[in-house]
Description:
- The protein is of the alpha/beta class.
- It has 2 domains: 9-128, Rossmann fold (3-Layer(aba) Sandwich), CATH 3.40.50; 134-414, no CATH class.
- The protein contains 16 helices and 15 strands.
- It has helices spanning 9-15, 32-40, 62-68, 83-94, 108-118, 133-136, 147-153, 176-182, 193-216, 221-233, 241-248, 252-264, 293-299, 305-309, 314-329, 377-385; strands at 21-25, 46-48, 73-76, 101-105, 123-127, 237-238, 268-271, 287-290, 338-343, 349-356, 359-365, 390-391, 394-398, 404-406, 410-414.
- The strands form 3 sheets. Strands 9, 10, 11, 12, 13, 14 and 15 form a 7-stranded mixed sheet that branches. A 5-stranded parallel sheet has the order 2-3-4-1-5, sandwiched between helices.
- β2 (46-48), α3 and β3 form a beta-alpha-beta unit.
- The mean pLDDT is 92.
Amino acid sequence: MNYRNRHLEAKILRYREVFPVVLVTGARQVGKSTLLSHLLGPDIPQVVFDPVIDVGNARQDPEFFIAQHPPPILLDEIQYAPELLSVIKRRIDRDDRPGQYFLTGSQNLALLRDVSESLAGRAVVLDLGPMTLAERHGLGMQPGKIWLQTLLDAAGALPDFSRQARLPQVAPWRTVFDALWRGGYPQTLDLPHDVIVDVLQSYVRTYVERDIRTLASVQDQQQFSRFLALCAAMTAQEINHSQLGREIGVTPQTAARWLNVLKATFQWMEIPPYHGNAIKRISGKPKGYFSDTGLAAFLQRISSPEALSGHPLFGPLFETHVVMDIHRQFQCLDMAPQVHHWRTHAGAEVDLLLERDGIFWPVEIKTTTRIAAGNARGIAAFRTTYPSLRHGPGVIIAPVEQVAHLRNEILVVPYDLR
Protein backbone atom coordinates (compact mmCIF):
# COMPACT_ATOMS: atom_id res chain seq x y z
CA MET A 1 0.00 0.00 0.00
CA ASN A 2 1.38 3.38 -1.03
CA TYR A 3 1.73 5.97 1.71
CA ARG A 4 -0.31 9.12 1.14
CA ASN A 5 0.29 12.31 3.07
CA ARG A 6 -2.39 13.35 5.56
CA HIS A 7 -3.67 16.81 6.49
CA LEU A 8 -2.86 16.08 10.14
CA GLU A 9 0.90 15.74 9.58
CA ALA A 10 1.70 19.42 10.08
CA LYS A 11 -0.07 19.55 13.44
CA ILE A 12 1.57 16.36 14.70
CA LEU A 13 5.02 17.68 13.78
CA ARG A 14 4.20 20.97 15.52
CA TYR A 15 2.74 19.47 18.68
CA ARG A 16 5.51 16.92 19.16
CA GLU A 17 7.69 19.96 19.89
CA VAL A 18 5.23 21.23 22.52
CA PHE A 19 3.56 18.32 24.34
CA PRO A 20 5.10 15.27 26.04
CA VAL A 21 2.22 13.11 24.77
CA VAL A 22 0.53 13.13 21.35
CA LEU A 23 -2.64 11.00 21.11
CA VAL A 24 -4.16 10.27 17.68
CA THR A 25 -7.68 8.85 17.81
CA GLY A 26 -9.84 7.49 15.03
CA ALA A 27 -11.70 4.44 13.73
CA ARG A 28 -9.97 1.13 13.24
CA GLN A 29 -7.83 1.00 10.06
CA VAL A 30 -7.88 4.72 9.21
CA GLY A 31 -4.07 4.82 9.27
CA LYS A 32 -3.22 6.16 12.75
CA SER A 33 -0.15 4.02 13.40
CA THR A 34 0.92 4.25 9.75
CA LEU A 35 0.81 8.03 9.95
CA LEU A 36 2.81 8.20 13.19
CA SER A 37 5.33 5.58 12.04
CA HIS A 38 5.88 7.56 8.84
CA LEU A 39 6.46 10.81 10.73
CA LEU A 40 8.53 9.36 13.57
CA GLY A 41 10.75 7.17 11.42
CA PRO A 42 11.89 3.54 11.75
CA ASP A 43 14.00 4.11 14.86
CA ILE A 44 11.00 4.75 17.15
CA PRO A 45 9.85 1.43 18.69
CA GLN A 46 6.17 0.50 18.50
CA VAL A 47 4.01 -1.69 20.76
CA VAL A 48 0.53 -2.78 19.64
CA PHE A 49 -1.88 -3.69 22.45
CA ASP A 50 -4.63 -6.29 22.26
CA PRO A 51 -8.02 -6.63 24.02
CA VAL A 52 -7.34 -10.28 24.93
CA ILE A 53 -3.59 -10.73 25.26
CA ASP A 54 -1.78 -8.65 27.88
CA VAL A 55 1.09 -7.58 25.65
CA GLY A 56 4.32 -7.20 27.60
CA ASN A 57 2.37 -7.67 30.85
CA ALA A 58 1.39 -3.99 30.49
CA ARG A 59 -1.94 -4.30 32.28
CA GLN A 60 -0.62 -6.50 35.06
CA ASP A 61 2.58 -4.53 35.76
CA PRO A 62 2.44 -1.12 34.02
CA GLU A 63 5.37 0.31 36.02
CA PHE A 64 7.69 -2.42 34.81
CA PHE A 65 6.42 -2.14 31.24
CA ILE A 66 7.10 1.60 31.03
CA ALA A 67 10.51 1.15 32.67
CA GLN A 68 11.43 -1.36 29.97
CA HIS A 69 10.10 0.83 27.12
CA PRO A 70 11.74 4.24 27.50
CA PRO A 71 10.61 7.13 25.32
CA PRO A 72 10.30 8.07 22.58
CA ILE A 73 7.88 5.25 21.86
CA LEU A 74 4.65 4.62 19.93
CA LEU A 75 1.94 2.82 21.93
CA ASP A 76 -0.76 1.60 19.56
CA GLU A 77 -4.40 1.03 20.66
CA ILE A 78 -3.73 2.37 24.15
CA GLN A 79 -7.37 1.83 25.21
CA TYR A 80 -6.46 -1.83 25.75
CA ALA A 81 -3.85 -0.87 28.36
CA PRO A 82 -5.27 2.18 30.20
CA GLU A 83 -3.26 1.28 33.28
CA LEU A 84 -0.23 2.76 31.55
CA LEU A 85 -1.64 6.28 31.52
CA SER A 86 -1.17 7.00 35.22
CA VAL A 87 2.40 5.65 35.04
CA ILE A 88 3.13 7.88 32.04
CA LYS A 89 1.71 10.83 34.00
CA ARG A 90 4.11 10.24 36.89
CA ARG A 91 7.05 9.94 34.51
CA ILE A 92 6.11 13.18 32.76
CA ASP A 93 5.70 14.98 36.07
CA ARG A 94 9.38 14.25 36.66
CA ASP A 95 10.48 14.95 33.08
CA ASP A 96 8.15 16.94 30.84
CA ARG A 97 10.27 17.05 27.70
CA PRO A 98 8.06 17.19 24.58
CA GLY A 99 7.76 14.33 22.13
CA GLN A 100 8.10 11.37 24.51
CA TYR A 101 4.97 9.25 24.07
CA PHE A 102 2.90 8.84 20.92
CA LEU A 103 -0.40 7.05 21.46
CA THR A 104 -3.22 5.85 19.22
CA GLY A 105 -6.74 4.78 20.16
CA SER A 106 -9.85 3.61 18.32
CA GLN A 107 -12.37 3.86 21.14
CA ASN A 108 -13.15 7.38 22.21
CA LEU A 109 -15.46 7.05 25.21
CA ALA A 110 -13.36 5.54 27.99
CA LEU A 111 -10.06 6.53 26.39
CA LEU A 112 -10.66 10.29 26.48
CA ARG A 113 -11.97 10.02 30.03
CA ASP A 114 -8.79 8.22 31.11
CA VAL A 115 -6.60 10.71 29.25
CA SER A 116 -8.40 13.71 30.73
CA GLU A 117 -8.01 12.27 34.21
CA SER A 118 -4.37 11.20 33.86
CA LEU A 119 -2.78 13.44 31.24
CA ALA A 120 -4.69 16.73 31.39
CA GLY A 121 -2.38 19.50 30.21
CA ARG A 122 0.27 16.98 29.19
CA ALA A 123 -1.29 15.54 26.04
CA VAL A 124 -2.78 16.87 22.82
CA VAL A 125 -5.59 14.82 21.27
CA LEU A 126 -5.96 14.79 17.46
CA ASP A 127 -8.63 12.97 15.44
CA LEU A 128 -7.91 11.09 12.22
CA GLY A 129 -10.68 9.88 9.92
CA PRO A 130 -10.87 8.10 6.58
CA MET A 131 -9.01 9.98 3.88
CA THR A 132 -10.36 13.14 2.30
CA LEU A 133 -10.52 13.30 -1.47
CA ALA A 134 -7.32 15.38 -1.53
CA GLU A 135 -5.50 12.84 0.67
CA ARG A 136 -6.59 9.98 -1.60
CA HIS A 137 -4.86 11.81 -4.45
CA GLY A 138 -1.67 12.20 -2.37
CA LEU A 139 -2.23 15.93 -1.82
CA GLY A 140 -2.72 15.99 1.95
CA MET A 141 0.31 18.22 2.45
CA GLN A 142 0.11 20.25 -0.76
CA PRO A 143 1.25 23.88 -0.15
CA GLY A 144 -1.26 26.69 -0.47
CA LYS A 145 -4.67 27.34 0.99
CA ILE A 146 -7.54 24.92 0.57
CA TRP A 147 -10.79 26.44 -0.68
CA LEU A 148 -12.36 26.30 2.79
CA GLN A 149 -9.55 28.36 4.27
CA THR A 150 -9.84 30.86 1.43
CA LEU A 151 -13.56 31.19 2.14
CA LEU A 152 -13.15 31.73 5.89
CA ASP A 153 -10.15 34.06 5.56
CA ALA A 154 -12.19 36.40 3.37
CA ALA A 155 -13.96 37.42 6.61
CA GLY A 156 -17.44 37.51 5.11
CA ALA A 157 -16.49 39.00 1.74
CA LEU A 158 -16.62 37.08 -1.51
CA PRO A 159 -13.48 34.90 -1.67
CA ASP A 160 -11.12 34.77 -4.63
CA PHE A 161 -11.06 31.15 -5.78
CA SER A 162 -8.99 31.85 -8.89
CA ARG A 163 -6.01 29.96 -7.41
CA GLN A 164 -8.04 26.94 -6.36
CA ALA A 165 -7.85 23.96 -8.72
CA ARG A 166 -9.97 20.85 -8.95
CA LEU A 167 -8.45 17.53 -8.00
CA PRO A 168 -7.34 15.40 -10.96
CA GLN A 169 -9.95 13.04 -12.37
CA VAL A 170 -7.88 9.87 -12.49
CA ALA A 171 -8.62 6.24 -11.70
CA PRO A 172 -9.88 4.97 -9.34
CA TRP A 173 -11.74 8.23 -8.56
CA ARG A 174 -12.63 9.24 -12.08
CA THR A 175 -16.30 9.89 -11.22
CA VAL A 176 -18.20 10.99 -8.14
CA PHE A 177 -19.70 7.50 -7.98
CA ASP A 178 -16.19 6.00 -7.79
CA ALA A 179 -15.24 8.33 -4.94
CA LEU A 180 -18.35 7.57 -2.90
CA TRP A 181 -18.42 3.81 -3.48
CA ARG A 182 -14.72 3.25 -2.74
CA GLY A 183 -14.65 5.50 0.35
CA GLY A 184 -11.60 6.67 2.23
CA TYR A 185 -10.16 3.77 4.21
CA PRO A 186 -6.48 3.51 3.22
CA GLN A 187 -6.52 -0.26 2.63
CA THR A 188 -9.25 0.05 -0.05
CA LEU A 189 -7.63 2.80 -2.11
CA ASP A 190 -5.40 0.70 -4.38
CA LEU A 191 -7.46 -2.49 -4.52
CA PRO A 192 -9.48 -3.68 -7.50
CA HIS A 193 -13.26 -3.41 -7.14
CA ASP A 194 -13.84 -7.14 -6.74
CA VAL A 195 -11.59 -7.29 -3.66
CA ILE A 196 -13.01 -4.29 -1.78
CA VAL A 197 -16.24 -6.07 -0.83
CA ASP A 198 -14.33 -8.83 0.99
CA VAL A 199 -12.09 -6.29 2.73
CA LEU A 200 -15.08 -4.34 4.04
CA GLN A 201 -16.86 -7.55 5.05
CA SER A 202 -13.84 -8.47 7.18
CA TYR A 203 -13.76 -4.95 8.60
CA VAL A 204 -17.40 -5.10 9.73
CA ARG A 205 -16.96 -8.56 11.15
CA THR A 206 -13.92 -7.53 13.18
CA TYR A 207 -15.62 -4.33 14.31
CA VAL A 208 -18.81 -6.05 15.50
CA GLU A 209 -17.25 -9.21 16.93
CA ARG A 210 -14.28 -7.56 18.62
CA ASP A 211 -14.70 -3.84 19.27
CA ILE A 212 -18.41 -3.89 20.03
CA ARG A 213 -18.16 -6.91 22.28
CA THR A 214 -15.35 -5.23 24.22
CA LEU A 215 -16.86 -1.77 24.46
CA ALA A 216 -20.61 -2.25 24.71
CA SER A 217 -21.24 -5.84 25.83
CA VAL A 218 -23.85 -6.24 23.10
CA GLN A 219 -25.48 -9.63 23.52
CA ASP A 220 -27.14 -9.94 20.11
CA GLN A 221 -24.40 -9.16 17.60
CA GLN A 222 -26.66 -9.96 14.65
CA GLN A 223 -29.14 -7.35 15.80
CA PHE A 224 -26.35 -4.79 16.25
CA SER A 225 -25.20 -5.56 12.69
CA ARG A 226 -28.72 -4.74 11.50
CA PHE A 227 -28.57 -1.51 13.50
CA LEU A 228 -25.25 -0.63 11.87
CA ALA A 229 -26.76 -1.15 8.40
CA LEU A 230 -29.81 0.92 9.37
CA CYS A 231 -27.60 3.83 10.40
CA ALA A 232 -25.84 3.60 7.04
CA ALA A 233 -29.24 3.87 5.35
CA MET A 234 -30.19 6.89 7.47
CA THR A 235 -27.02 8.89 6.90
CA ALA A 236 -27.62 12.61 6.25
CA GLN A 237 -30.95 12.53 8.09
CA GLU A 238 -32.20 13.98 11.36
CA ILE A 239 -31.97 11.44 14.14
CA ASN A 240 -35.02 10.02 15.91
CA HIS A 241 -34.08 7.38 18.47
CA SER A 242 -37.62 6.03 18.64
CA GLN A 243 -37.68 5.48 14.88
CA LEU A 244 -34.26 3.82 14.92
CA GLY A 245 -35.29 1.47 17.69
CA ARG A 246 -38.65 0.66 16.14
CA GLU A 247 -37.04 -0.37 12.84
CA ILE A 248 -35.10 -3.23 14.47
CA GLY A 249 -37.22 -3.89 17.55
CA VAL A 250 -35.21 -2.30 20.36
CA THR A 251 -36.11 0.44 22.81
CA PRO A 252 -35.26 4.09 22.11
CA GLN A 253 -32.85 3.94 25.04
CA THR A 254 -31.01 1.01 23.47
CA ALA A 255 -30.92 2.77 20.11
CA ALA A 256 -29.48 5.88 21.78
CA ARG A 257 -26.87 3.79 23.61
CA TRP A 258 -25.84 1.99 20.43
CA LEU A 259 -25.55 5.30 18.59
CA ASN A 260 -23.21 6.47 21.33
CA VAL A 261 -21.16 3.32 20.74
CA LEU A 262 -20.92 4.19 17.04
CA LYS A 263 -19.80 7.71 17.93
CA ALA A 264 -17.29 6.39 20.47
CA THR A 265 -15.76 4.14 17.81
CA PHE A 266 -15.73 6.95 15.20
CA GLN A 267 -18.29 5.36 12.87
CA TRP A 268 -20.91 8.08 13.29
CA MET A 269 -20.92 11.86 13.60
CA GLU A 270 -23.78 14.16 14.56
CA ILE A 271 -24.21 17.84 13.76
CA PRO A 272 -26.34 19.85 16.18
CA PRO A 273 -29.17 22.11 15.00
CA TYR A 274 -28.94 25.90 15.02
CA HIS A 275 -31.76 27.69 16.82
CA GLY A 276 -30.92 31.37 17.15
CA ASN A 277 -33.98 33.26 18.36
CA ALA A 278 -36.54 31.31 16.35
CA ILE A 279 -36.54 28.12 18.41
CA LYS A 280 -40.30 27.51 18.20
CA ARG A 281 -40.20 27.22 14.42
CA ILE A 282 -36.91 25.36 14.09
CA SER A 283 -36.19 21.63 14.26
CA GLY A 284 -34.20 20.66 17.33
CA LYS A 285 -32.93 17.27 16.17
CA PRO A 286 -29.28 16.59 15.34
CA LYS A 287 -28.35 15.35 11.90
CA GLY A 288 -26.31 12.16 11.67
CA TYR A 289 -23.65 11.04 9.21
CA PHE A 290 -21.95 7.71 8.66
CA SER A 291 -18.22 8.28 8.76
CA ASP A 292 -17.29 6.59 5.47
CA THR A 293 -19.40 6.40 2.33
CA GLY A 294 -17.65 3.27 1.08
CA LEU A 295 -18.53 1.36 4.24
CA ALA A 296 -22.08 2.73 4.15
CA ALA A 297 -22.49 1.63 0.50
CA PHE A 298 -21.23 -1.83 1.42
CA LEU A 299 -23.67 -2.11 4.32
CA GLN A 300 -26.48 -1.23 1.91
CA ARG A 301 -25.27 -3.89 -0.53
CA ILE A 302 -24.51 -1.45 -3.33
CA SER A 303 -22.32 -3.63 -5.52
CA SER A 304 -20.49 -1.10 -7.72
CA PRO A 305 -20.06 2.58 -8.56
CA GLU A 306 -22.40 2.03 -11.50
CA ALA A 307 -25.10 0.65 -9.19
CA LEU A 308 -24.73 3.70 -6.94
CA SER A 309 -25.47 6.04 -9.84
CA GLY A 310 -29.14 5.04 -9.88
CA HIS A 311 -29.56 4.23 -6.19
CA PRO A 312 -31.87 6.30 -3.94
CA LEU A 313 -29.00 6.66 -1.46
CA PHE A 314 -26.82 8.53 -3.93
CA GLY A 315 -28.00 11.94 -2.68
CA PRO A 316 -27.52 11.17 1.05
CA LEU A 317 -24.15 9.54 0.39
CA PHE A 318 -22.99 12.52 -1.67
CA GLU A 319 -24.00 14.86 1.16
CA THR A 320 -22.23 12.58 3.64
CA HIS A 321 -19.06 12.65 1.56
CA VAL A 322 -19.05 16.45 1.32
CA VAL A 323 -19.83 16.98 5.01
CA MET A 324 -17.15 14.54 6.19
CA ASP A 325 -14.61 15.94 3.70
CA ILE A 326 -15.19 19.46 5.02
CA HIS A 327 -15.04 18.26 8.62
CA ARG A 328 -11.67 16.56 8.03
CA GLN A 329 -10.30 19.59 6.22
CA PHE A 330 -10.67 21.50 9.49
CA GLN A 331 -7.29 19.94 10.33
CA CYS A 332 -5.75 22.38 7.84
CA LEU A 333 -7.12 25.38 9.77
CA ASP A 334 -5.67 27.16 12.77
CA MET A 335 -9.20 27.72 14.08
CA ALA A 336 -12.04 25.47 12.94
CA PRO A 337 -15.55 26.95 12.72
CA GLN A 338 -18.56 25.85 14.71
CA VAL A 339 -20.80 23.60 12.62
CA HIS A 340 -24.60 23.33 12.69
CA HIS A 341 -27.44 22.37 10.41
CA TRP A 342 -30.67 24.35 10.13
CA ARG A 343 -34.19 23.30 9.26
CA THR A 344 -37.63 24.77 9.79
CA HIS A 345 -40.80 22.80 10.35
CA ALA A 346 -42.02 24.27 7.07
CA GLY A 347 -39.22 22.47 5.21
CA ALA A 348 -36.62 25.18 4.58
CA GLU A 349 -33.14 23.90 5.40
CA VAL A 350 -29.42 24.50 5.17
CA ASP A 351 -27.23 21.41 5.15
CA LEU A 352 -24.23 23.02 6.89
CA LEU A 353 -23.90 26.26 8.78
CA LEU A 354 -20.32 27.34 9.46
CA GLU A 355 -19.76 29.96 12.17
CA ARG A 356 -16.46 31.68 12.94
CA ASP A 357 -15.61 35.18 14.18
CA GLY A 358 -19.30 36.02 14.39
CA ILE A 359 -19.84 35.31 10.67
CA PHE A 360 -22.24 32.67 9.34
CA TRP A 361 -21.64 30.83 6.05
CA PRO A 362 -24.64 28.70 4.90
CA VAL A 363 -23.68 25.69 2.79
CA GLU A 364 -26.06 23.68 0.62
CA ILE A 365 -25.11 20.35 -1.02
CA LYS A 366 -26.71 19.36 -4.32
CA THR A 367 -26.22 16.40 -6.64
CA THR A 368 -27.24 18.24 -9.82
CA THR A 369 -24.92 20.07 -12.20
CA ARG A 370 -27.65 22.48 -13.25
CA ILE A 371 -27.61 24.93 -10.36
CA ALA A 372 -30.12 27.77 -10.48
CA ALA A 373 -31.43 30.37 -8.06
CA GLY A 374 -34.06 27.93 -6.83
CA ASN A 375 -31.34 25.73 -5.35
CA ALA A 376 -30.49 28.54 -2.93
CA ARG A 377 -33.95 28.77 -1.33
CA GLY A 378 -32.66 27.38 1.97
CA ILE A 379 -29.87 29.95 2.10
CA ALA A 380 -32.33 32.76 1.38
CA ALA A 381 -34.72 31.49 4.07
CA PHE A 382 -31.92 31.39 6.65
CA ARG A 383 -30.88 34.95 5.86
CA THR A 384 -34.50 36.12 6.09
CA THR A 385 -35.06 34.33 9.41
CA TYR A 386 -31.96 35.87 10.99
CA PRO A 387 -31.53 39.34 9.44
CA SER A 388 -29.45 40.62 12.36
CA LEU A 389 -26.68 38.01 11.91
CA ARG A 390 -23.50 38.79 10.03
CA HIS A 391 -23.87 36.69 6.90
CA GLY A 392 -20.97 35.51 4.75
CA PRO A 393 -21.41 34.30 1.18
CA GLY A 394 -23.62 31.28 0.69
CA VAL A 395 -22.05 28.18 -0.86
CA ILE A 396 -23.64 25.47 -2.98
CA ILE A 397 -21.39 22.42 -3.36
CA ALA A 398 -22.19 20.24 -6.35
CA PRO A 399 -20.54 18.00 -8.99
CA VAL A 400 -19.99 21.00 -11.29
CA GLU A 401 -17.02 21.78 -13.51
CA GLN A 402 -16.00 25.18 -12.14
CA VAL A 403 -16.73 27.84 -9.56
CA ALA A 404 -19.70 30.03 -10.50
CA HIS A 405 -21.29 33.08 -8.92
CA LEU A 406 -25.05 33.21 -8.46
CA ARG A 407 -26.85 36.35 -7.45
CA ASN A 408 -27.07 37.53 -3.82
CA GLU A 409 -23.51 36.51 -2.93
CA ILE A 410 -23.92 32.80 -3.49
CA LEU A 411 -21.08 30.69 -4.90
CA VAL A 412 -21.35 27.34 -6.66
CA VAL A 413 -18.28 25.24 -5.81
CA PRO A 414 -17.14 21.89 -7.29
CA TYR A 415 -17.19 19.09 -4.72
CA ASP A 416 -13.60 18.21 -5.72
CA LEU A 417 -12.13 21.71 -5.44
CA ARG A 418 -8.76 21.70 -3.69
